[in-house]
Design goal:
Layout lengths: L5 E2 L13 E3 L4 H4 L7 H12 L8 H9 L11 H4 L5 E4 L2 E3 L2 H10 L7 E5 L5 H7 L4 E6 L2 H14 L4 E5 L12 E6 L8 H5 L1 E11 L6 E9 L2 E11 L8
Parallel strand pairs: 1-11, 5-6, 5-8, 6-7, 8-9
Antiparallel strand pairs: 2-7, 3-4, 9-10, 10-11
Helix pairs in contact: 2-3
């Protein structure tokens, strides 16, 4: 992949953590009934997805991004702002990732549809919604309690029934649901937490930005095979730091 400098994503800072999880249950998403969507929003979405084609190999990723109404995950934003290829604020000092970042990271997971995925950094729930259309089950952790609760309610209302939301510290992972076939991290630790590598299943893939704040971070793809972990550099990125809860 060509070098890139991409802007992401929601912060994992703060110490607000509430242990607990929730499973959304409405079948609306599978039926395509998405309240709050519109023809105008779909037109914006189609234009956005057309611009992502050169960054993504898997057509199913583009289809998922076409189906998920991003504007419903960007509070109080205009349609134009919601579908711009930029990060956008979602409250509590956090942001939703640039669509190009979401597309590239999702594509890098090489999902086939049967995987159990762990996401670190729920934010508003947009990435989890995309993943839910491409995987069997999605488990997502957000350290900001209020964002976790809002994302849980939003995903429930939109019918993403295979997404499980927990408020808590991403550095701790989700041990009682491990191992995971795929893990995606949406904020940058200085070094990848060993806990997360430990929760990655044999044959699994983990995608994360790694490095200190600034313009030196790298988007890395890790593969676990035969008990050994290898890494691949996918390019330069700029993410907010991943900070453990206190």
């Amino acid at each position: 992949m060509a070098p890139m400098v991409l802007l992401g994503c929601q912060s994992l800072t703060g110490s607000q953590a509430l242990e607990g999880d929730s499973n959304t249950s409405s079948p609306a998403a599978s039926r395509g009934l998405l309240p709050g969507d519109s023809d105008e929003a779909r037109a914006y979405r189609a234009e956005l997805v057309r611009g992502l084609g050169s960054e993504v190999r898997d057509a199913r990723v583009l289809d998922a991004m076409l189906r998920v109404p991003r504007h419903l995950f960007v509070p109080r934003a205009s349609l134009w702002r919601a579908y711009a290829d930029d990060a956008a604020p979602i409250g509590y000092g956090q942001t939703i990732s640039q669509p190009t970042v979401v597309a590239i990271m999702t594509d890098a997971l090489e999902l086939q549809g049967r995987e159990r995925v762990l996401e670190i950094g729920t934010g508003s729930g947009y990435q989890a919604a995309i993943l839910s259309l491409l995987a069997s089950e999605v488990y997502t952790i957000e350290i900001v309690k209020e964002l976790a609760e809002q994302a849980r309610a939003r995903l429930l209302a939109l019918g993403y029934a295979n997404v499980h939301v927990r408020a808590g510290d991403g550095y701790a992972g989700w041990p009682d649901q491990a191992p995971f076939d795929r893990i995606v991290v949406t904020a940058a630790p200085d070094e990848l937490p060993r806990t997360l590598l430990g929760e990655l299943a044999e044959g699994g893939i983990l995608v994360a930005p790694v490095g200190p704040s600034g313009w030196t971070q790298r988007l890395l793809r890790y593969r676990k095979k035969g008990g050994r972990v290898s890494s691949e550099d996918l390019g330069g990125v700029a993410f907010v730091p991943m900070v453990p809860g206190g």
